[in-house]
Every structure is written in structure tokens, then in C-alpha cells.
Amino acid sequence: MHQGRHRFYTLLCILLHCTFVSYAQQITPPLWKNTLIITPPQLQPIKGEPTNDLLLGLHDNGVTAPAYDIVNQAKTSLDIEIYELKDITFRQLLINAARRKVKIRIIKDSATIADTCNELTAPLPTDKPVCLEEKAFVSALINAGGTYSYFNKANLCGDPGKICYMHGKLIIADKKRALISSGNFSTSSLCGGIDKMPKKPGSCNRDYTYVTANKNVIEKLQNIFHQDLNEVAYDVKKEVLGKDKKISITVSPTAAHTLLTLIKMAKSQILISTQYLNDPLVNMELMNAAYLRKVEVRTLVADLCNYGEKTMSPSAKISSRQLFDKMQNSGVETLFFTKDLKVAGKNGYNHSKAMVIDRKLGWIGSINFSEESLYKNREFGILFANPKEVQKLINSIEKDMSTPGSLNLEQEKVRCGI
Q: What pLDDT does 158 receive?
């Protein structure tokens, strides 16, 4: 049996030009060193939530806006870690909460890819209108008693001294509920609350959110928040394991092995909906699952040329074609989520990060399948095995996959000129 698998693997590597090296050899030592090495028995996905709280469980952000509700319902505290916080309605809800004496503490990324505004400085004549709005929000929040600080990248990045992002999307409310999302608190990621928005978005993202009341999860997330707030380097792996030594959450830069373990555990099917598939180890394990173990692997990624064919460089076209050809040759199905696929009635974009293993175990989070998100950034994710919530995720992903706005590889090659 083992000799047969070895022959299969050898053939696979000939086809895919891979090499026989360990995970640690494929990722630079400082990055792999961050990874929390686990065994399958340590996985403890959330299996149930109290039935008297309708906010708990999985949400499609294009249908509902749990981030609005959790802020509206907060009574004592809101601890938030976030990459982008641009939605006007969400900002006002935070100010309202602070004015009713809810203790609000926000840790935000200091310089997102699309925004270099320093919200913590006084308004300047050279500031763009969007930047002035951000500064006005921060000022109003602080005046109402809230705190707003930047994620300390110098001390807390997975690769010290290098670029990383606070890319998580986390809210802990009243120390009793926690929200983890793939979507930022920006208008296009909160389209389930579009009726509450004074300015409607031009497009809407496919994003997922999970809200939990699990005490162990909340304790771990609260401890991580406090450590990030203190801005001193600490052992993230220790906090993720917690007192029970079980894995219910993923927190980068320690999360890679947990997600790889999920893929390796699959026996019948892997469903993935994600913005990107850029990490070589994840891609290798998906191909191994499809080719060696005959697992049905179906992936849905964002349209490669969502912003126009001309936005893709020649090198990007070549690398994309090579990657997805390899995946297709190994038996991995890849579909592409185009703007023709509608979310909340608007042109859609796949910003989700979600996975289902054997139709029994679900994961959603902020982790794109890229080296940065797995080994460098601060990211949050959550595992769940409640059949009802897992089925919600399956239904959403499979509906997107079967919609005409979802293209196969050959159609995407034509669309994007690759």
C-alpha cells in the first residue's frame, strides 16, 4: 500500500514539478517556527451554541449584518481588532455605544494597503476628505470615552522587523460573545445591513461571520486581545492552546499547521471559498488530497481580473495559468467568482475565507491562503461542527459555485487573457 502511494506521489511530482522536502524546508525557518504544531485529537470545533440567542452561529454578510447587531446590543464592553473600519453606520454605532458608557477599545492596522491615513494625528490641510472623516470618527470615539490604538507591528509581527498587517476581524462583546469574520467593518463587507446605510455600496463582498458564546474561545481571544493591547511580544501559540490544550480557533502567525491538518484529514470532500490560493503548502496539500487520496476538492476564488484584464501583469498571468493548470491536472476543481455573481443585489466579489471538510467540519476566518496571512499577520479564524451551521456554509458555497457568474478555468482564461 505504501509503495503504491509512493509511486503515485512520484508521478504527481513529475507532473507538478514538486520536490520532496518538509514543510519546514519550504518555509523560511523564522516563519515556520511560529507555527503551532498540533495533532487531530487536539481539534475541538464548536459543536453547539445556546438556542436562545439568535445572533449566534454562522452568517452570510450579504444577508445579515451581525457586526451592527453585536455593537447595538453591547452593554458593558467592546474589544475590537480590525484591518479596516470604514463603514459610516458601524462607526456611528460605536460612538453611540461609547456614549451609553460601553467601554470600547479598538486595535487597528496602522497602514492598510488602500489607506495611508494616520487617524491619530490632527487634521491637516493636505488630508483627503476620507482621511478627515476617519480622524473625525476617532476624535468623537475618544471624546466619548473609547480608546483607539495601532497594532504594534515592530513587536507583534510573525516576522519581526518585516511588513505585516493586523488583518483580523474580531469583536468581543461584554466578555460573553465573540464575532470572527472574513469581512472588514467596511460598507462592501456589511451589505446585509444595506438598508441602514446612508450611502449604498457600488458592489458587495461575499463574506462570512461566526458569532459564538463559547467560554473557552472567548477566554482565549480575550487574552490575545489584552496581549496585543499591551504591545509586548508574547507566545501566541500558548494563548491559542489555552488551559484545555485544544484547538477551536486559528490565530496567525501560528495557524498554518492547523489548516494543513484539516486538509490532510479530509476523506471525501474539501470545499473552499477564498479570495486567494497563494500559499504553496496549502496548494500542495489540496493537490495531494485530490490526486493521492481521491478526495473531491472544489475551490472558489476571486476573479483574477475583477478590475479588468489590464490590471494583470504578464508575469501574473503566467503564474496564474501555471498554478491553476497544475491544480486542474491533479484533480482540483477551481471556479472563479466574477462580478456577475450578485451579492445583496449588487455586483459581487469573493472576499471570503472559508473551508468545509467532509461536509462535517467548518472553518471561517480572516486568513487568506497566502504566506503573509499564515505566517506573518495577526489573523483570526474559528472551527465549528454544529451540523446546522456547517450546512449553512455548504449551501452558500455550493450555490455560488453553481451560479452562472461562477466560471471554470477555461472560461476564466478567456475572460482574463491568460
A: 87
Which sign, positive or negative, has the C-alpha torsion 229, 235, 240, 246? negative
Taking each helix axis from N to C end, the angle separating 88-99 and 66-73, rounded to the nearest 10 degrees, works out to: 10
Report the distance separating Cα 258 and Cα 241, nearest Å. Answer: 12
Would you tell me how many other CB atoms lie within 10 Å of the CB of residue 13?
Answer: 13
> Which cell goes with 210?
461566526
Instruction: Count the residues in the chain.
Output: 418
Task: Name the region of 373 (left: φ>0; alpha: ψ -120 to 50; beta: rest).
Answer: alpha
Rounded Cα–Cα distance for residues 18 and 291 (Å):
14
pTM for the model: 0.93
Sheet holding 406-407, edge to edge: 249-252, 379-384, 361-365, 353-357, 269-274, 296-302, 333-337, 406-407
**Tell me: the pLDDT tens digits for 179-197?**
999 999 999 999 999 999 9
Tell whether the torsion through CA atoms of 109, 110, 114 and 119 is positive or negative: positive
Q: What is the per-residue pLDDT across 222-266, written as a single tens digit (0 to 9) for each?
A: 999 999 999 999 999 999 999 999 999 999 999 999 999 999 999
Q: Is 137 left (phi over 0), alpha (psi -120 to 50) or beta?
A: alpha
Considering only CA atoms, which of 373, 164, 380 is closest in space to residue 279? 373
Q: How far apart, in whole angstroms, are the C-alpha atoms of residue 377 and residue 315?
A: 26
